[in-house]
Amino acid sequence: MGENEQIKSLFQRVCYDDSIQAYNELYIALCTRLIHFSASIVSSFHLAEEIVSDVFISLWQKRRDMSHVENPVVYLYVSTKNLSLNTLQQQKRHQHHSLDALNADMLVIAPEAESGMVSAEVSQKIERAIRSLPTRCQLIFRLIKQDRLSYREVATLLNISTKTVDAQLTIAVKKISQAIRFDLSDETAQTYLRQDS
């Protein structure tokens, strides 16, 4: 069972069976990704943990009405995004906030050197290349490559077209490929940066 099917199955067990065990497993499966995502909006891991916790509490309270949700991953990301932006607005009442003001440092999730595909040194080069991208481009790259969302899921989450997602990802992949082209064989680079739509 793929990760998305597993998450869907846990989500359905929460909604239909009131399963606390499924609820806990769902939280464990997604909390790190959602906390990083929220922290990139609110610039605070502490606040992001509270926000993600609130998103899950709200899910449990409304679980009976949630059985219609087609894609639980997107639903939870969108809920996290909305609550994060609302929290920011409450903190700074007079400023309008959007995803363009992301704190990119909070998006950093340790690069995948431990997967054995790339060395720690190359992994750092990749991280530097990602950090040099425009913020929205970084976010799209990370959501697809690290959080493993699909193009369509990212488009839904950020209210943009899949064409825009594709264009931004192409920019990111090009820039990162240039940064590491002397360190990896083309084949390894292609595997690491493979675009799965």
UniProtKB/TrEMBL annotation:
<dbReference type="InterPro" id="IPR039425">
    <property type="entry name" value="RNA_pol_sigma-70-like"/>
</dbReference>
<dbReference type="InterPro" id="IPR013324">
    <property type="entry name" value="RNA_pol_sigma_r3/r4-like"/>
</dbReference>
<comment type="similarity">
    <text>Belongs to the sigma-70 factor family. ECF subfamily.</text>
</comment>
<feature type="domain" description="RNA polymerase sigma-70 region 2">
    <location>
        <begin position="33"/>
        <end position="93"/>
    </location>
</feature>
<dbReference type="Pfam" id="PF08281">
    <property type="entry name" value="Sigma70_r4_2"/>
</dbReference>
<feature type="domain" description="RNA polymerase sigma factor 70 region 4 type 2">
    <location>
        <begin position="124"/>
        <end position="176"/>
    </location>
</feature>
<keyword id="KW-0731">Sigma factor</keyword>
<dbReference type="InterPro" id="IPR013325">
    <property type="entry name" value="RNA_pol_sigma_r2"/>
</dbReference>
<dbReference type="InterPro" id="IPR036388">
    <property type="entry name" value="WH-like_DNA-bd_sf"/>
</dbReference>
<dbReference type="InterPro" id="IPR014327">
    <property type="entry name" value="RNA_pol_sigma70_bacteroid"/>
</dbReference>
<dbReference type="Pfam" id="PF04542">
    <property type="entry name" value="Sigma70_r2"/>
</dbReference>
<keyword id="KW-0804">Transcription</keyword>
<protein>
    <submittedName>
        <fullName>RNA polymerase sigma-70 factor</fullName>
    </submittedName>
</protein>
<keyword id="KW-0805">Transcription regulation</keyword>
<dbReference type="InterPro" id="IPR014284">
    <property type="entry name" value="RNA_pol_sigma-70_dom"/>
</dbReference>
<dbReference type="InterPro" id="IPR007627">
    <property type="entry name" value="RNA_pol_sigma70_r2"/>
</dbReference>
<dbReference type="InterPro" id="IPR013249">
    <property type="entry name" value="RNA_pol_sigma70_r4_t2"/>
</dbReference>
